[in-house]
Amino acid sequence: MIIALAIAARIRGTVASDHAVYGIGELISPPAATDPSRPAWWTFRLRDYSIGLIGGSISTGVGSYDSLGPDPAVLSRQWDASLGPKFRSGPPAPAQLDFRGHDWFDWAWPDRLVILGAGIQHGSRQGVNATVFTIPLWLIAALAAMPLFISWSRQRRLRRRLSQGRCTHCGYHRAGLAPEQPCPECGRQGAITTPTTSP
Ligand SMILES: [Zn+2]
Predict the structure, then answer these.
(1) What DSSP string describes the chain?
(2) CA of 193 to the centre of ligand 1 (A)
(3) What's the 151 CA to ligand 1 centre distance in angstroms?
């Protein structure tokens, strides 16, 4: 029976010039020891929430890191003192691992859906899981400029129809109609202004 009880939680926040990271960690007690001669392995799991400016894109991600160790105090200190886990030892991977900070931004992502630089990427390896959402700055600028562009092109069409003596609603050519007469095509009141010469 596995008893995974969070007995400690830590919150760390770091801000670098290009990214900000917020992490919440929890210390998870090991399963009940079946063999008293073997040490019980604690898990320290950190969840990172980060946002950063990477290669002309805003990337925001959620990562999770597991560290294992026989001494919960040591595990906590490791996380407390660093930007990332410096080691993971014991089962299931006895090898020393070294993940620093936000290497996962540079991963070759196995699962990714990215179109024109915008998308979602997910990957995991050796106890580290990460999901990153990316949106390029040019796309943000383009979306922000969209209402401006729509209103500009509406104004432009309106002015063109007026100058050509057309109905401002449907574009019907109002040649020979008095300005106060409704449009024969759409029935709405046409341009109040007198049509100027057609090109
Ligand atoms: Zn019309």
Answers:
(1) -----EEEEEEEEEE-SSEEEEEEEEEEPPPPPSSTTSPPPEEEEEEEEEEEEETTEEEEEEEEEEEEES-HHHHHHHHHHSSS-----STT--S-----TTGGGG---SEEEEETTEEEEEEEETTEEEEEEEEEHHHHHHHHHHHHHHHHHHHHHHHHHHHTTB-TTT--B-TT--TTSBPTTT-SB--SSPP----
(2) 15
(3) 20
pLDDT, tens digit (0-9, with 9 covering 90-100), for 127-183: 678 898 999 999 999 999 999 999 999 999 999 998 998 998 898 998 888 888 888
- Read off the pTM: 0.58
CA of 181 to the centre of ligand 1 (A): 11
Report every protein residue that has its C-beta within 5 angstroms of ion ligand 1: 167, 169-170, 172, 183, 185-186
